[in-house]
Amino acid sequence: MLKKADIISIGDEILIGQIVNTNAAWISTRLNELGIGINRVTSVGDSHEEILAILDEASKRSDIIIITGGLGPTSDDITKPALCSYFNTRLVHNEIVYAHLETFIKQRGSIMNEGNKSQAMLPECCEVLQNNWGTAPGMWFEKQGIIYVSLPGVPFEMEGLMNEYVLPKLQAKFGIEHIIHRTILTHGIAEAQLATILTDWEKTKNENVKLAYLPSPGMVKLRLSVYGEKNGSALIQQEEKKLHEIIGNAIYGYDEDTFESVIGKLLKERNSTLSLAESCTGGTIASKIVSISGSSDYFKGGIVAYSNEIKMKELGVPAETLVKHGAVSQQTAEAMAEGVRTRFETDYSLSVTGIAGPLGGSEEKPVGTVWVAVSSKEKTIAKKFRFGDNRQRNITRTAMAAMNMLRLFIEGKEIF
Question: Which domains, ranges and CATH numbers included, belong to the chain?
């Protein structure tokens, strides 16, 4: 039988938007990989009553309850007192945890204070999970067949405890069924259009393979899932092959892939180099390219040519091209791409020029108009895009569209 979990994130800072709750997403992914489904993800504030209420509610629907946050050394961290109330127990001093705290804090050149000492006070009925990455230990409880795990909210501490203790213990505790997910990353086809294209495939796909559309600006993720089937991987591979036959050019990667990681892999495979000429994106694409470890093997550099003066002086864009066609044009984008490729002596180059907004548009070239060009020694191709009127979204979508165009160009596929 499929085991289900609730994830509870504690802290006022989450509710007021001061921090983004990345912990819940990470835990959901790891539990799913183990074969545990997620019933609900909940955030609650630093309230004794709210914590008790959500624990009681979660226990009615889930086999496993993972709690993060509220275990620090300050007075507003109230998870432990709430857990003591819920499990009808008391806080007791744990000498092993205290000794670990002393060593951990001393190694970092600090001195134990009362707040740190309080972290060695733990609910008497819990199994302690030693935190080798910080000062707040994890706690494992069992009540009426339900597993409760309380972890610190600091992401790398939580992840360490999950990987070291929680996931192995859950795997050993339950006879867990398989859940397999495969996320197919697409670009260039809007969600509604994609759904129309895939109508026939959806009607005929294996009924054990579930589909979810996950749209975000500039891309749509297709998540294929199989629950409780030992041959789940084979079922997903069959459907994935069919999708490639239908929308192959739109698929740029899988699961955790990014445009920049895919491009890096393509360039490494071909022992090729890349240069960039950016205008409206202001270095955004270069920043993404260099975020990949090993990018120095293929990325030579780029020029942020925001003004026409720099386009002419640094990229060799002819003045007459700018006068006749303007900075945002096919001719300028092509000249930028060819100019940076020649100057940096690379195998491939990519250029972008556009009107990010909200100012600067015209009737002929409204805000959101972007030209992208890709170039090699053999040829140069440019394409016009029309995005919206939000500046930051335009920059993000331009970067994605440009990298996807580069991907297709390198692979020798049709640019659509």
Answer: 3-173 (3.40.980.10), 179-254 (3.30.70.2860), 260-411 (3.90.950.20)
